Automatic annotation (TrEMBL):
Keywords: Membrane, Transmembrane, Transmembrane helix. This is Transmembrane protein 94. It comes from Culex pipiens (House mosquito). Coiled coil: none annotated. The keyword Membrane applies.
Length: 349
């Protein structure tokens, strides 16, 4: 009877073990990531609307609409209003406003894409927090797994047991086992407080030793149990949030910018405008077609240049370009979401 009472009392007491539990660790990782993400989202939300509008139209090679054709279209709208073509001016204005709205919206979606992806990761971590009670050490990679440049693993105490945990899942307060020759996953301190390691520092001898002249028995360097002070993934997250827009421009966007924006919308626009104005000035001064065609200054200097420049302006091109890109992205996402087994079965048919 006494043995049973002692066992029941020990069972009722909370377990105390080294390190964090999986639930607490995942919740702490979720909270740390959400704190960093909320700071970046707030900084972007405080950005003035004028700067967001300007970034979509000025100096942006990924945008299908630039500031020059936008201003040119606005000038043509004013020209059509001046000569009395109100319906044409209104139609052009509607197309211009629609193109600007879609372009600015697409630019904002591109800038906030990383925020939505991190939010989806937070959802996965939240789901893992609710289901991690069923996890066992067999859910982690084997402790003797070979080192890999793709996934860096670290011996960590979780739920009182040593598991091989990826660096991305380490959080502040985790107890890790530093082995000789191992690189520190982040800023950590030994439990006794004797040694501390910075991120990327290798655990080894504190002082260099001369090679022995004869064989000498030496005690091996012991493993150290250290406490992680900062969540290592946050540094990678901040680097990603700071530099995700600095990706190189794709070849398709470079060719589109050169052919459409530079050659047609800027250089072609200026050449056609100059030719129509020169020919119109010669007609207006009576050098040719004198008396055969009307030489009203509105028709010569407003209507004719506007009619000649209208096909060059990007009235529908930005909307078509963005629509085709979204359609292609949707097709690619749908293709990647199909399981490989289903794709192989379709190919065999």
């Amino acid at each position: 009877m006494g043995f049973q009472n002692d066992g029941a009392s020990e069972k009722d007491q909370p377990r105390e073990y080294l390190g964090l539990s999986t639930t607490i660790a995942l919740q702490r990782l979720h909270d740390d990531i959400e704190t960093v993400l909320a700071a970046y989202e707030e900084r972007y939300a405080r950005q003035r609307w004028f700067l967001k509008f300007r970034s979509a139209l000025v100096g942006n090679m990924t945008s299908a609409l630039s500031w020059f054709p936008m201003l040119a279209t606005a000038v043509l709208v004013v020209a059509f209003v001046a000569i009395g073509y109100y319906f044409s001016a209104g139609f052009l204005l509607v197309l211009l406003v629609l193109a600007i709205f879609i372009t600015v919206r697409e630019n904002n979606l591109r800038k906030t894409e990383i925020f939505r992806k991190v939010r989806s990761v937070l959802g996965e971590i939240k789901c893992g927090t609710e289901l991690c009670r069923e996890w066992t050490p067999f859910n982690y990679p084997h402790q003797c797994s070979p080192l890999s440049p793709c996934v860096t693993l670290q011996w960590t105490y979780r739920d009182g047991k040593i598991v091989n945990l990826p660096w991305a899942l380490l959080v502040r307060g985790d107890h890790i086992v530093m082995r000789p020759g191992q690189v520190s996953p982040g800023t950590c301190t030994e439990i006794s407080g004797k040694r501390s390691f910075k991120c990327g520092e290798t655990y080894g001898l504190t002082k260099p030793m001369e090679p022995p002249k004869r064989p000498i028995a030496r005690a091996p360097i012991p493993d150290l149990t250290c406490v992680v002070e900062v969540t290592p993934y946050l540094d990678n997250l901040r680097t990603t949030l700071d530099n995700f827009l600095n990706r190189p421009t794709t070849i398709i966007n470079q060719q589109r910018h050169l052919l459409i924006t530079k050659c047609i919308q800027q250089w072609g626009f200026l050449v056609v405008l100059l030719l129509t104005l020169i020919v119109g000035a010669l007609r207006y001064l009576g050098f040719y077609f004198n008396g055969k065609v009307p030489t009203n200054w509105r028709n010569v200097f407003l209507l004719n240049p506007a009619a000649a420049l209208l096909p060059i302006l990007p009235l529908v091109f930005p909307m078509l370009w963005i629509t085709i890109n979204l359609w292609g992205t949707a097709r690619l996402e749908a293709l990647l979401s199909i399981p490989q087994s289903v794709m192989r079965a379709e190919v065999q048919k």
